[in-house]
Amino acid sequence: MAYSEKVIEHFEHSRNVGTLDKEDPNVGTGLVGAPACGDVMRLQLKIGDDGVIQDAKFKTFGCGSAIASSSLVTEWVKGKSIDDAVKITNKEIAQELSLPPVKIHCSVLAEDAIKAAIKDFQDKRAKRGQAPAVTTQPVTTTP
Amino acid sequence: MALKFPIYMDNHATTPTDPRVVEAMRPYFEESFGNAASRNHAFGWTAEAAVDKARKQIAALIGASDKEIVFTSGATESNNLALKGVLEFYKDKGDHIITLTTEHKAILDTCKRLERQRQERIDELKLQRLMELTGRDVSTDELATLEIKHDLEHDALLARWVDKVRVGARVTYLNPKKDGLVDLEELAAAITDRTVLVSIMLANNEIGVVQPVAAIGKLCRERGVLFHTDAVQGAGKVPFSVEDAKVDLVSLSAHKMYGPKGVGALYVRRKPRVRLAPLLDGGGHERGMRSGTLNVSGIVGFGKAAELAQAEMAAEAKKLEALRERLWKGLQAKLDLIVLNGSHEHRLPGNLNVSFSYVEGEALMMKIKDVAVSSGSACTSASLEPSYVLRALGIEEDMAHSSIRFGLGRFNTEEEVDFVIDLMARSVSALREMSPLYEMAKEGIDLKSIAWTAH
Predict the structure, then answer these.
(1) How far apart are CA B452 and CA A34, in angstroms?
(2) Which of A1, A23, A61 to mutate to test the interface with B (most CBs of B within 10 A)?
(3) Is A77 within a domain?
(4) Residues B176-204 as b or e (16 or more Cβ within 10 Å = b)
(5) How many domains does chain A have?
(6) Are B196 and B226 in contact (CB under 8 A)?
(7) For residues A16 and B434, what is the distance between their CA atoms, to the nearest angstrom?
(8) 0.90 surpassed by pTM
(9) Which residue range(s) make up the domain with A97?
(10) In this prediction, what percent of chain A has a pLDDT beyond 70?
(11) What CATH number does residue A78 fall under?
(12) Does residue A139 lie in a domain region?
């Protein structure tokens, strides 16, 4: 099975690998997958009170396609509003990376990671009695 | 000497054909192209003589007589022939096979088919019995419900019918011990008066564990049960003789011992004589056990490969074991949290199977693309299940996903091993730096305490 050039590029030069402070109220952490299944993805998003994603970091245990999917979404979500970020689908990720059918679950995982990170951020706000963050101004940056 | 890339360290998958083997085969494509079954002209005689020589070379490698070698298309066919052929021929004696859960798929899937055939026959008999009991036609869909309603489990007549079933087999799959070796007491306990065959491999293709075949053979002989061993990985690598092992059937493959692909053999004991029903009907070649024109060039190559393996085994095993230990010690010196899978002591000299915790095997292979190895990771198989061999040893799924199999062979060098040690150390460290599991483990989080979202 050959890998697509984009998978190789994101695997060999992974973007935004790292860790954000999970105690920071503006950081949402999504941890999805399971070690027994061979892939675990942790996506962390730093989100402003205006609902715009300022930074994204990931760490992934998984195959090359899982790592590439994570790297790709960190690039995509940066600068996006959380409303737009949750609209990213696994299909778009799979298409961009030309993932074969057996690797589609990697893109599903990446989509789930975005949703989980945003949910964690909103849950944190709710705990502090804040309303969910919503984007007030149109965002111009697109990946 | 400068290294040549990519480096091949996957010698359990296949081996390069030794140049001396290629040289021996060459004449049998052009000038000596004859059919070994042509009895009436020189072309046939030349081919037959070449096949006879190869038969002797292969027999000598395993301490057998040349009359006991049946050529096949490879070890998958040899395994199929041994199991299906014995079960069919000895169907009046019994119908029970004992094997290991860590056997090659050519054994396990053959066993599954034999089990299915028997079950299908029993289901037919159940339908017939239900038709008698209900006095009407009964469809397969109704079987499950009517079977309970009419209590077929305690139906004396059906039990007598089932007792007469002579197709397929019943199979016991033994789990090996944690080190991959068969538990001899469990094996002894599993043998019944219906057991006709025990099939346990000489050496495992993933973890390289070498089974105590002499003890298994002795046990089988005492209990009057035939013993088959899939010796594909072990023959020519570790000392093995059909007399010492008291083995009745042995599967061999040329391409795992520096011979060509597409040719294998089945050793079938003559004293005491072991009989087989053939899989293929036709010209009655190979004493009726395997019809089909012989692959003369392939067989010549197989013979040469066997001769070389026999002559060089002792020195080669010593060299490979030294390389293997150099690799293992080198990895241990540079990396923590790595685990050797399977017995260290009872192991093929060229095999090293290691789990690199918190790193996924396929990603690791992608990182070390200059080196050809294998992984037990699910991502390398179509099934998305990690290695069933490692799972059978009780190894956790995440560690199975993290495994790499190194298969050292005749043409590997110290320089290559040293390069691989460095490359592995760098690659594992880099992937751990991006592994959330490694970070969590370092923070002291028990990964088992987390409610993972399995998908």
Answers:
(1) 5
(2) A61
(3) yes
(4) beeebbbeeeebeebbeeebbbbbbbbbb
(5) 1
(6) yes
(7) 10
(8) yes
(9) 5-127
(10) 93
(11) 3.90.1010.10
(12) no
